[in-house]
Amino acid sequence: VPGAGAALRPCSSRVAQDGINKPVIDRIIRVDHAGEYGANRIYAGQMAVLGRSSVGPVIQQMWNQEKNHLKRFNELMVAYRVRPTVLLPFWNVAGFVLGAGSALLGKKGAMACTVAVEESISEHYNNQIRTLIEEDPEKYKELLQVIKQFRDEEQEHHDTGLEHDAEATPAYSVLKTAIQLGCKAAIFLSERI
C-alpha cells in the first residue's frame, strides 16, 4: 500500500510560527482585522443612507474592496492564531454610526469621512511596513505583500474621496481632525485589548 505507515496530516492554513516575533505579529494582525472590520461597518452605514444616490456605486466599490480586506485578515488571524480585539462589538456600532452620520451630511460628508479614515489607515499601514522590514522583510514577505496591497487600495479610496468633493464639506478640517483622532484611539486600543 503506497504510503503505508506514514502519518497523514490534514491540510492546515496555519503558518510556521518558528522565529516570528509573535507579539508584533499578533498586534499587527489584531489591529488590522479590527480596522478592516470597522471600515466595513463605516461603508455599511454610508450605504444605508446613500446607497440609492448617485454616489452609491462609488461607495459600494470601495466597500467591496474592504470586504476582501476583512476576509483576508480573517484568514490571517486563523493562520497566525491571533485572537480578535474584544472591542469588535463596539467597533460594529461605532463604525456604522460614523458611516451613517457622515452620510447624513450628504455625499461630501461621506467622502470627508472616507478621506480622514483612509489617510489614517494608509499612515498606519506604512508604519507597519517599516516595522516588518526592520524585523525581517524575507520572513514576513507574505504579510508585507498583503499590507502593501491594502495600503495602496486605501490610498485609492482616499483619492476617490478627494475627487468627490470631500474638501467642500462644511467644517471639513474640524471633521477630518475629529475622525482621525478617533482612528488613532481605535488603533491604540485595538492593538492592545
Kindly describe this structure.
- Helix content is 75%, strand content 0%.
- It has 193 residues and is mainly alpha-helical.
- It has one domain: Ferritin (Up-down Bundle), CATH 1.20.1260.
- The termini are far apart.
| Unreliably modeled segments | 1-12
Q: Number of DSSP strands?
A: 0
Q: How large is the count of helical segments? A: 6
CATH class: Mainly Alpha
Number of domains: 1
- Rounded radius of gyration (Å): 19 Å
| Shape-level CATH architecture | Up-down Bundle
- The percent range for strand residues is under 5%
Helix content: over 70%
Q: What do we call the CATH topology? A: Ferritin
Overview in brief:
The chain is mostly helical.
List the helices and strands and how they pair.
Blueprint: H1 22-50, H2 56-80, H3 88-104, H4 107-135, H5 141-163, H6 172-192
Helix pairs in contact: 1-2, 1-3, 1-4, 1-6, 2-5, 3-4, 4-5, 4-6
Pathway: Cofactor biosynthesis; ubiquinone biosynthesis
Organism: Molothrus ater
InterPro entries: Ferritin-like_SF (IPR009078), Ubq_synth_Coq7 (IPR011566)
Question: What features would you highlight for this structure?
Answer:
193 residues; mainly alpha; Ferritin; oxidoreductase; Ubq_synth_Coq7
